[in-house]
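Let's sit down with a protein and look at its sequence and fold side by side. We need material for that, and I hope you will provide a protein of your own picking. Once you have written the record down, we can walk along the chain together.

***
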Amino acid sequence: MKEFLWPVRVYYEDTDRGGVVYHTNYLKFMERTRTEMLRSFGFEQDQLIEKENVIFVVRSLQVDYLKPARFNDQLQVNALISHMGRASLTFAQSIRRESDDSLLCNAEVRVACLDAGKMTPCSIPETIRREFTYAD
């Protein structure tokens, strides 16, 4: 599967007093990118709950912060499924500044598929598995 890219502009609200992106906001940018990736395959998270009775939740993550993003930077956030298990997806994600292509941070994010009612692990629906398996 090829990587999915999503553009993000850094707003004032994303930064601390020094104009640097606050560390947790990188995680928000990555979350939005994973959501938009699902959407690009035709999967809306609210519909997954209604039709498939599943939700995706972050199970674990490892983040390396390399350089700061600053107010008004244009960023490219990527998401690439590096592993698909029976009930989980592992994403390799990174954030780059567009103006100089600087790598700002890398992350590995493991997302678990849960039964929305029971909040217990369950298999990734075949419709999702099929789309991700056959994507170029």
Summary: The radius of gyration is 16 Å. Strands lie at 4-9, 54-65, 74-84, 88-97, 103-115. The chain is about 25% helix and 40% strand.
